[in-house]
Amino acid sequence: MKKIEVEQKVLAKNDDWARANRERLRAGGIFSFNMISSPGSGKTSLLERTLAALRGELPLAVIEGDIQTDNDAARLRGFGFPVVQINTGGLCHLDASMISRTLDGLDLDALRLLIVENVGNLVCPSSYDLGEDEKVVLISTTEGDDKPLKYPAIFRRATVMIVNKTDLVPYTDFSLERVRANALGINPDLTVFELSCRTGQGLDAWLDWIRSRVAPPPAR
Ligand SMILES: Nc1nc2c(ncn2[C@@H]2O[C@H](COP(=O)(O)OP(=O)(O)O)[C@@H](O)[C@H]2O)c(=O)[nH]1
Ligand SMILES: [Mg+2]
After folding, report:
1. Of 161, 202, 209, 213, whose CA–CA distance to 184 is shortest?
2. Would you say 63 and 117 are in contact if contact means Cβ atoms under 8 Å apart?
């Protein structure tokens, strides 16, 4: 009983931070999304592809969440965008107060897009609103097409599902039709992108989705 009360208080406090982040980002005209998946689904790989494509086109920043290391931030720094690594020191998710502190150090006036890569985990990050506009859940074809059924919360809260590593489909028993049906059964409003960060197939539709979400620059 006590444990439940404490958890509710933690989540309520998190929601306060998240609300403040959301107001701050909206006021700045910054679109934001939060990428959530198991470790190894390809979040950082997709960011490498995304940053390479949007270089010179869209001013963005990336927040990288990991339990340890700044390996992922190091992979992304070469693209010329601000990249901030948060190490949670054992915690299995980012929370909204961590994002708030990171926003303090970013030049928000210069940004139109904020991308967050959450800690690799399909469970904990789904409960913690960061103040982002949308949650993007990734699943790769080596994980099994039943994962939406086993971890429904994040598929319910996400607006986008990315199925990555389509290049590996011939070597697995993963079915693109089944994963789509499983996910849409939980959340019929999900927008689904199938792509391969290895071959680049399917990336254009994902990039167009980002472009469609970002507000046009203010008129001068
Ligand atoms: N074959 C294949 N491998 C991929 C693809 N995307 C990512 N990978 C590999 O999957 C591994 C984990 O990718 P990473 O981006 O670090 O995943 P993250 O933990 O979700 O950030 C790396 O070895 C990537 O090279 C893909 O589309 N096809
Ligand atoms: Mg990563």
Report:
1. 161
2. yes
- At 196-218, the pLDDT tens digits run 999 999 999 999 999 999 977 76
**Distance between CA atoms of residues 12 and 138, nearest Å:** 27
pTM of the model: 0.95
Is the beta carbon of 41 within 6 A of some atom in ligand 1?
Answer: yes
- 140 C-alpha to ligand 1 centroid (Å): 9
* Residue 37 CA, ligand 2 centroid: distance in Å: 9
Contact assessment for residue 173 and residue 147, using Cβ atoms and an 8 Å cutoff: no
Ligand 2 geometric centre to CA of 92 (Å): 13
Distance, CA of 146 to CA of 218 (rounded, Å) = 44
How far apart, in whole angstroms, are the C-alpha atoms of residue 96 and residue 60? 19
152 C-beta neighbours (distance < 10 Å), count: 16
Residue 200 in tokens: 């680049």
Cβ atoms of 135 and 159 within 8 Å: the answer is: yes
Q: Work out the number of other CB atoms within 10 angstroms of the CB of residue 196.
A: 21
